[in-house]
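To illustrate the input format used throughout this study, we show a single complete record. The first block contains the structure-token representation of the backbone; no residue identities are included at this stage. The design step must infer an amino acid for every position from geometry alone.
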């Protein structure tokens, strides 16, 4: 489809609005901390607002946990650990399975709240985030009574209390990634969701109450960086699991140095997406769109660096531009929306700053002609061509819908370019040559490498990075190990 065909298509076909209803959801005006099986007021009585990024309107007020609140939560988790860790794996699995089923039963409500609080399109919340969250609980429910088979000839034991800190880009899914394996292995949890997206974690707390999970096994404390620091620095926590920025990850690593705390970090990324001349081009273009514009580019493993073999570069770039013209940016609750709202004003400012940097560095910018809403936080899908390895938009994580495109001629050249980054989280390879795929998977320095697809996740598959993208794995059998010690 050339550009003229694209314009004709857009003129001939328009979509009526198809908003998802919000009548079925329940959101409280005020949310307290979830400690020891009940919602409790913060000791100092402080609250903060969580904002709908599509409208910049307040959704609810949320308790802000202090060091004293975190201490109460850790004590509740430590007390619960004694009985929870002694419970048989079969019984633990029943609770985890029940949580999974309850998420499924309330999936529609979770999806709407996730889109309201985070800004992501309802199609993504409904079809990806919520089902995957439930599936992680299902998956680890199955492992709870099989740990001796997972680690034969070893005696796996739980660590104790796990402090878990999750980001704002996949709030419920990240909570599932953290909580499910911790519970399956007999640990108890103090979890802190991101300050801009706390609502689905607090709805999960309601499900945890409904499931009958023993008091204190899961505690959820809300707040910003100081709350997270209180968890990291608490002397009675045995394990820290963090997903977020590389800068904060480095702080955490320094903070726990010299202690006995175990640590897993899943940090930033600058994923390379590689298109060879023998790839199925139309399929690859869809893969490019999914790699960088999924969840507005708020994805640590996003394919934010595109490498296209020189012989097909012009064709791929033109097809990509045509495809970008069809993307719908707007109301996250509209089922037609492809790209929703940027999560916060702060993140939008960061993205806009990087776009200015890309222009000032001499990059050639392209954005489709799309009408952005007047209220809320919005950024048009963006790509840059004529950039080099030294450009900041090529080297630094933007965490937004901004793609930097380079070309290559040989396999060795693209491997060298792809690995020329401090990050090592993800990569994608598009080719019809299986030997080429296997060759690149051995050479690319990335924890996850997709072949002829991108951003596909499965509870049974481990996820994690190398270099400044962190260490440790979540998901799969590998996700159990960070929550165990062996005797």
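Output of the design step:
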């Amino acid at each position: 489809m050339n550009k003229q065909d694209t314009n004709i298509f857009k003129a001939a076909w328009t979509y009526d609005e198809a908003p998802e209803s919000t009548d079925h959801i329940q959101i409280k005006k005020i949310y307290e901390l979830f400690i020891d099986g009940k919602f409790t007021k913060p000791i100092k009585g402080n609250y903060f607002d969580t904002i709908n990024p599509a409208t910049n309107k307040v959704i609810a007020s949320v308790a802000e946990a202090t060091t004293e609140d975190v201490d109460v939560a850790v004590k509740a988790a430590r007390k619960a650990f004694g009985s929870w860790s002694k419970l048989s794996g079969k019984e633990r699995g029943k609770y985890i399975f029940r949580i999974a089923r309850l998420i499924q039963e309330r999936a529609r409500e979770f999806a709407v709240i996730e889109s309201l609080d985070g800004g992501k399109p309802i199609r993504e919340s409904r079809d990806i985030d919520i089902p995957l969250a439930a599936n992680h609980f299902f998956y680890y429910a199955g492992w709870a009574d099989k740990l001796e088979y997972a680690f034969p000839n070893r005696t796996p034991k739980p660590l104790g209390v796990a402090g878990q800190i999750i980001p704002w880009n996949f709030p419920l899914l990240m909570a599932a990634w953290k909580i499910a394996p911790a519970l399956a292995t007999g640990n108890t949890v103090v979890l802190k969701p991101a300050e801009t997206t706390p609502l689905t974690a607090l709805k999960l707390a309601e499900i945890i109450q409904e499931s009958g999970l023993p008091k204190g096994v899961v505690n959820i404390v809300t707040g910003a960086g100081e709350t997270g620091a209180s968890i990291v620095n608490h002397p009675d926590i045995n394990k820290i699991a963090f997903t977020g920025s590389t800068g904060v990850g480095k702080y955490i690593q320094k903070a726990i140095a010299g202690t006995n705390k175990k640590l897993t970090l899943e940090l930033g990324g600058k994923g390379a997406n590689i298109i060879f001349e023998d790839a199925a081009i139309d399929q690859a273009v869809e893969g490019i769109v999914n790699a960088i514009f999924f969840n507005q580019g708020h994805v640590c493993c996003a394919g934010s660096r595109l490498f296209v073999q020189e012989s097909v570069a012009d064709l791929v770039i033109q097809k990509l531009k045509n495809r970008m013209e069809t993307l719908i940016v707007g109301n996250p609750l509209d089922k037609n929306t492809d790209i929703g709202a940027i999560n916060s004003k702060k993140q939008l400012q960061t993205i806009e700053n990087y776009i200015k940097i890309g222009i000032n560095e001499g990059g050639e910018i392209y954005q489709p002609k799309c009408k952005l809403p007047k209220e809320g936080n919005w950024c048009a899908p963006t790509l840059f061509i004529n950039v080099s390895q030294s450009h900041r938009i090529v080297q630094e994580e933007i965490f937004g819908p901004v793609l930097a495109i380079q070309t290559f001629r040989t396999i060795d050249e693209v491997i060298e370019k792809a690995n020329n980054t401090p990050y090592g989280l993800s990569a994608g390879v598009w080719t019809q040559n299986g030997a080429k795929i296997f060759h690149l998977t051995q050479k690319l320095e990335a924890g996850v490498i997709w072949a002829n697809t991108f951003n596909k996740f499965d509870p049974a598959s481990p996820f994690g990075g190398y270099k400044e993208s962190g260490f440790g794995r979540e998901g799969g059998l590998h996700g159990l190990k960070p929550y165990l010690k062996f005797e």
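Structural context for interpreting the output: The mean pLDDT is 96. The domain at 272-451 is CATH 3.40.309.10 (Aldehyde Dehydrogenase; Chain A, domain 2).
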